[in-house]
């Protein structure tokens, strides 16, 4: 028997945070899109931040069959979500800046082993900033994205997460 279940908190809604776990067409004990009936608890959790709601939605749809995906469009919620949801990996879509480097360092202080992948548009005028960012994250992918490469890198990084 399939049921719809909604789990939501006012904090998530106020923060612009959505989880693929929040609204799911599921059979009890199974995760949507999982042909083997893998439970949601056994899947790795990816936290995805982008200021672009459509980008969040697109990536969450691409990854929801293999991972628990939590998305937010509120950059201020990243630290809290990493701590509260024990994310296994974080994807951050943001414009390169010194503030972004500080935010990444804050994520690392919460979870030093958290794999972080950054997604952004390359700007040759910001080469120094690009090198600095690369020193603080596990991978950088430039837009437009080659999703197969991003997916492969996610899998590689998650192999090392316990």
Describe it for me?
The chain has a single domain (42-159), classed as Response regulator (Rossmann fold, 3-Layer(aba) Sandwich), CATH 3.40.50. The relative contact order is 0.13. A 6-stranded mixed sheet has the order 2-5-4-6-7-8, with helices on both faces. The protein has a two-stranded antiparallel sheet with strand order 1-3. The protein has helices at 10-15, 53-63, 78-85, 98-110, 127-134, 147-159, and strands at 3-6, 17-19, 23-26, 45-49, 68-72, 89-93, 116-120, 139-142. Helix 3 packs parallel to helix 4 (98-110). It contains 6 helices and 8 strands. Residues 1-15 and 19-37 have low confidence and may be disordered. The protein is globular and about 45 Å long. With 162 residues, it is of the alpha/beta class. The termini are far apart.
Question: Could you give a quick summary of the protein structure above?
Answer:
The protein has helices at 10-15, 53-63, 78-85, 98-110, 127-134, 147-159, and strands at residues 3-6, 17-19, 23-26, 45-49, 68-72, 89-93, 116-120, 139-142. The relative contact order is 0.13.
List how many beta strands DSSP finds: 8
Broad structural category: alpha/beta
What is the helical fraction, as a range of percent? 25-40%
Q: Outline, from the CA principal axes?
A: globular
Main sheet properties? 6 strands, mixed
> Can you write the helix and strand succession as a string?
EHEEEHEHEHEHEH
Poorly predicted ranges:
1-15, 19-37
- The number of distinct structural domains comes to 1
What's the architecture in CATH terms?
3-Layer(aba) Sandwich
Radius of gyration: 16 Å
User: CATH topology, what is it called?
Assistant: Rossmann fold
Total DSSP helices:
6
Mean of pLDDT: 81
CATH domain class name: Alpha Beta
Strand order of the largest sheet: 2-5-4-6-7-8
Work out the strand percent.
15-25%
User: What is the terminal-to-terminal distance?
Assistant: 33 Å
CATH homology group: Response regulator
């Amino acid at each position: 028997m399939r049921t719809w279940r909604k789990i939501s908190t006012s904090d998530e809604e106020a923060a612009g945070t959505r989880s693929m776990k929040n609204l799911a067409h599921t059979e009890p004990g199974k995760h949507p899109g999982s042909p083997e009936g893998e439970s949601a608890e056994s899947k790795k959790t990816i936290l995805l931040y982008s200021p672009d709601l459509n980008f969040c939605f697109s990536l969450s749809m691409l990854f929801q069959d293999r991972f628990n995906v939590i998305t937010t469009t509120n950059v201020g919620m990243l630290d809290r979500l990493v701590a509260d949801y024990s994310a296994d990996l974080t994807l951050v879509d943001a414009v390169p800046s010194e503030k972004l480097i500080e935010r990444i360092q804050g994520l690392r202080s919460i979870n030093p082993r958290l794999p972080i992948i950054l997604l952004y548009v390359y700007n040759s005028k910001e080469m120094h900033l690009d090198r600095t960012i690369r020193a603080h994250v596990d991978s950088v992918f430039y837009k437009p994205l080659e999703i197969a490469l991003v997916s492969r890198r996610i899998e590689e990084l998650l192999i090392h997460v316990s």
